[in-house]
Design goal:
Fumarate Reductase Iron-sulfur Protein, Chain B, domain 2, 8 strands, disordered C terminus, Rossmann fold
Length: about 425
């Protein structure tokens, strides 16, 4: 694609990145077949190729309107188009650059600006988010059905975190909403790693991965959260105390793995961020690397799960963002679960961070389609790898939805804990 970027952007780092991305697009249209919003709306401006044209026009200095903003807002940033693209177009990065520029040129209505501000203030802050969720759960039985399904049910941690006792250590990101919405996910990961001779530790100073603010066009705020996490983890790296940074939420994982790229122009953090990204691993990657130790444990305790039908939803941030496929599924099969086939498994469930709040109609259509696909072969439960997908899917189905690491933990520890003295 030929480009003539406007003077205001062409010589900046953002402009050079955008120009290279635009030039890599060959207009082939392969992306249309895998774009969820294009499939729903049938409007090319709601496809990656159409949005690229809109972004190109803006970057070349043409007027920007609310129409441009609307079509960029409708993008889930699911990155299915990147998986499909034969030219390797870095579409998500171009969208981030363009949304930031559009935000500076197009004024949003006061109400929409306020909603985005509140999302950035409340969701990453457990001191605000947890009381709100607890209040919602308390009054949930009194709410009408339309509101009730939007409030997650009460979730409690069933077992405690194992003591730190192994020479091998890894550190996990607690995240912002996950400890409130599903507090058993990280303890489940810690228990499984404990049986493999790895202690999973936490840093109280680490918080939100930064994705929420960054993708709400408050990029400076998002990068501030990223630097805070780097500062929290860096002493462990300097002292050579940890092998990896473990992610149990694929949405956080894809962001932390991109710290090095996002902060590449920051002289104080570029090298640290690159190092952080290099050692960050999804929990599935960790367990896959420990397969020699894990497989005998799975065989020993697979009896209770044999024949259990499980539908696995692979989040976009896992299969498209991190390009990780079939790791969790293989481990679950090794544990004895029978994984059902899921039609159109590459499509987004509609959660997409704050998308389900900001674009509720499209999100609900995607949710209904995804639940229909997941339930098509009548599984007994649904498993996924991201807290946002988990909560969103649970609002649309009566089947239990859990993180796959919890499903694995239940299989191992329903039998294991009765005779183990390892846990405190």
């Amino acid at each position: 694609m030929q480009t003539r970027l406007a003077d205001f952007i062409k010589n900046s780092p953002q402009g050079k990145e955008a120009d290279a991305i635009l030039r890599s697009c060959v207009h082939c249209g392969f992306c249309l077949a895998t774009c969820p919003t294009y499939q729903l709306l049938g409007d090319e401006l709601d496809s990656p190729r159409g949005r690229i044209y809109l972004m190109k026009q803006m970057l070349e200095g043409q007027p920007v309107s609310q129409k441009t903003q609307l079509h960029l807002d409708r993008c889930l940033t699911c990155r299915a188009c990147e998986t499909t693209c034969p030219s390797g177009v870095h579409y998500a990065e171009l969208v981030d650059i363009s949304r930031d520029l559009v935000e500076k040129q197009v004024t949003r209505p006061v109400g929409k600006n306020l909603l985005r501000y509140l999302l950035r203030r409340i969701l990453p802050n457990p001191l605000l988010f947890r009381p709100l969720i607890k209040t919602g759960q308390f009054v949930r039985p009194l709410l009408p059905a339309s509101l009730k399904k939007k409030v997650p049910v009460t979730s409690k941690s069933g077992r405690q975190w194992p003591t730190t006792r192994h020479k091998r250590k890894m550190i996990v990101l607690d995240g912002c909403v996950q400890p409130t919405l599903s507090p058993n996910i990280n303890p489940a990961a810690a228990r499984i790693l404990d049986t493999l001779g790895i202690s999973l530790i936490r840093s109280a100073q680490a918080g939100c991965c930064g994705a929420l603010a960054y993708h709400l066009n408050a990029q400076a705020e998002g990068m501030g959260a990223m630097r805070k996490n780097i500062d929290a983890w860096w002493p462990y790296i300097v002292r050579n105390e940890i092998e990896a940074i473990v992610m149990t939420a694929s949405g956080c994982g894809v962001t932390v793995k991109e710290y090095g790229h996002i902060l590449r122009h920051d002289p104080a953090y570029a090298d640290k961020a690159a190092r952080i990204s290099t050692i960050t691993r999804d929990i599935g990657e960790i367990l896959a690397n420990e397969r020699e130790t894990l497989e005998p444990l799975l065989r020993k305790h697979k009896t209770g799960s044999v024949g259990t039908r499980l539908a696995f939803h692979s989040p976009c941030t896992l299969q498209h963002g991190q390009q990780i496929r079939n790791q969790a599924e293989q481990i679950l099969r090794s544990a004895g679960f029978q994984l059902t086939s899921v039609p159109d498994s590459h499509l987004c469930c509609g959660s997409a961070g704050t998308y389900s709040i900001l674009q509720p109609e499209l999100s609900q259509q995607l949710l209904q389609n995804k639940v229909t696909a997941l339930e098509s072969e009548q599984p007994e439960k649904i498993a996924t790898a991201n807290i946002g997908c988990l909560t969103h899917l649970q609002s649309g189905t009566a089947l239990p939805v859990k993180h796959w690491i919890e499903v694995l933990d239940e299989q191992l520890f329903n039998q294991y804990t009765t005779k183990s003295s390892r846990l405190t």
